[in-house]
Design brief:
This protein is mainly β and 209 residues long. The protein has helices at residues 2-14, 119-127, 154-157; strands at 33-49, 53-64, 72-76, 82-86, 94-102, 134-139, 142-147, 161-168, 172-173, 179-180, 183-190, 203-205. It contains three helices and twelve strands, in the order H-E-E-E-E-E-H-E-E-H-E-E-E-E-E.
Length: 209
Amino acid sequence: KMAEVNDMFDDITKEQAYYKPKEKKDITLLTEGDYLCHITSVTTKTLDVQGKYKARLYTYTVEVAEENKDKDYYFTEIDGSKKHTKGEPYIGKKFYGKLWRFLEPAEGDDFESNSTGNNNYLRFCETIGVDCPKETKSIDGQDVEVQILPSLTPDDMLGRPITAFVALGKPWVDKEGKKRQYYECKFCKKWAEGKKKTIKSGGTDDIPF
């Protein structure tokens, strides 16, 4: 019997096992800056704003394009040191952005105009190449030159090449009470050499066509 037990232990000790530590992967952290992107999804809805305005809110996603690989970035390591990277590790990263189009009240509406709040919307239209013609309108008895802002649909935005300025958004607290903060697309600028990309789906809105 004892011989059998010894044999069993001999067999067990023949089984080889070893520990190999995991290779540490270099993590390229996100950083503030300009990223070459395409708009890949859009949702839109109308909302009451601050109890006195009405606006259409566009929530969109941009995805970092292949052409971004040659750009230069400097990100901050966890230990606080600065590190250089080319833009390749960021290809495929997605960021959310928001765009407001404040609506003009028609006769009988109980909300106010906030046309001066549409500067970001005007700049966005110009960025993606949508025309905003100038017209003279009579406002409060005075002739004022205004720019007519088209109502963009998701199809107008999807696949458009843009340069996204990305930075940290406002911190917020999740359900577990943890503080969260994400990088987001603050605004879009022109990407002059960018080509429109075909996006198969990704646009939804509540406009009844």
